[in-house]
Amino acid sequence: MTSIDFPIGPVLSTLDIVGIGLFAATGAVAAARARQTLITFAFFALATGVGGGTVRDLLIGAPVFWIEDTRPLTACLVIALLVWITPARLWRGKTLDWLDAIGMAAYAVFGAAKALSFGIPPVAAVMMGIFTACLGGIIRDVLAGEPSIILKPELYVTAAALAAALFVGLSAAGVMLPVAAGVSALAGFALRALAIWKGLALPVYRGG
Amino acid sequence: MTSIDFPIGPVLSTLDIVGIGLFAATGAVAAARARQTLITFAFFALATGVGGGTVRDLLIGAPVFWIEDTRPLTACLVIALLVWITPARLWRGKTLDWLDAIGMAAYAVFGAAKALSFGIPPVAAVMMGIFTACLGGIIRDVLAGEPSIILKPELYVTAAALAAALFVGLSAAGVMLPVAAGVSALAGFALRALAIWKGLALPVYRGG
Amino acid sequence: MTSIDFPIGPVLSTLDIVGIGLFAATGAVAAARARQTLITFAFFALATGVGGGTVRDLLIGAPVFWIEDTRPLTACLVIALLVWITPARLWRGKTLDWLDAIGMAAYAVFGAAKALSFGIPPVAAVMMGIFTACLGGIIRDVLAGEPSIILKPELYVTAAALAAALFVGLSAAGVMLPVAAGVSALAGFALRALAIWKGLALPVYRGG
């Protein structure tokens, strides 16, 4: 598949960079909590920062984004170093959750947009947004041996689905892309923020 | 690689649908046992239903099957909803094992057939059948935090290998494809059924 | 992407075979320690032996190396059988670590070389060397339910990074490929050997 006339403009590119950078930071913070070495910081930052986008690119048949352009790798390594040298109190409490929430919303929109730009149909493009947004965090949690967010009733995948579906719907409806991207990312972030702040959660299965 | 003159007829297409649907059901049932939310039901159903086939398509260089055709995604989501709303007693006991056994046998044959249709050599096509059949279940078990079937002495991978190898052998020997597919899937299912029913297992390593 | 004028000569091919074979052996030994069946021996040997190289090929857009050429699969299966029938005392103690160390150094160099031969830029080629060398072991540890080497402070990823970066640097500097490959693999192995022998480790994060 080749690129069609769905432009990835500056707003979407910014969401990509924000997603990579913030996920890399959450990976490095997870390494800090697990008292790892600087090399493991780098490994966690890379796997969390570029993991979701890598799987997205493999699935849609795009060249993997960090192979030709080495800036994402460099950004992840610099962020790992920054987390290593800054005071740990900056990363306490719910900091990880909030960084992750912004990264998730940004990456859900960018993932769906990149899929559309490769001519992927709408339903699969929404799935790509969800994957891009959720896989980085799942990889990080598995690496750190922590229970994955997707196994908790707290809203997470739902917020990514809202952001990705809203973006695909708004852009199909002819809304200007920068506006559609901004509104969708904010909506996904707002829903996830309610989950972090108020514990907003889905009901669990009670069949039996 | 492009498609060669190995036709995927209606019997093989049926095995594909059966594999996707039953694996999706086992994913949703695993989510029910873990008292998850409806979103997690959908996530487990999708990952288990399309996971093995996705890896197969990436390895053989085929377009990922659920990107252009959204029916597999829709089927997984509908099945997740059905498991959510039906009485849990339907899914008790060994139901999961039996659904999984049929899905495994169907998917082992279809995975090998799809690989052959892309011009993959016989030995690698058998491996693709085994991968397609086993990976969905492994993904489900890892997601649910349960010990994977491949770590138990009970026959499982062996049954998938029987189905895939028998299909590749019979079709190479010129047996009509619908017959080869049906016989191979039944043989794989029968071997797995003996394992579920009678505890048929391989000997474990006793070196020392 | 297609192959450019970076020749994979006999020294690099030997490193590939050594990497596949030794990783397959460590996978089978992990299965023996976990008292698994012969089928699981084969599964562990295959996943560990070809896992890292498979991910490398998917990322750089190369055809997966064991699809057309079935010798790697056959080698992994033969090695699984050899580990099954030989006395377990051969595989005691640190044998697994030493086999893994040679396989890691060989695979770090070959992974970087294969990436260069597909026209991948230097920084990404170094990453490919690290991935090829480390992923097989990570897959093995996850399958066997053991804590992964990358979570321990002992030098491991660092040694792979040294081998891959040294090879990319030396070949860019015009050093003859067989010499660059040999020197780099030896350097990576020597660093890992110090870690196994003397417990050489990186400092862990003490921020707080």
From TrEMBL, chains A, B, C:
It holds the Pfam family Gly_transporter. InterPro entries: Gly_transporter. The chain crosses the membrane at residues 12-31, 38-66, 72-91, 98-117, 155-177. It is a multi-pass membrane protein. One of its GO terms (cellular component) is plasma membrane. Its main location: membrane. It is found in: Cell membrane. Residues 14-86, 98-170 form the Glycine transporter domain. It comes from the Bacteria. This is Putative membrane protein YeiH.
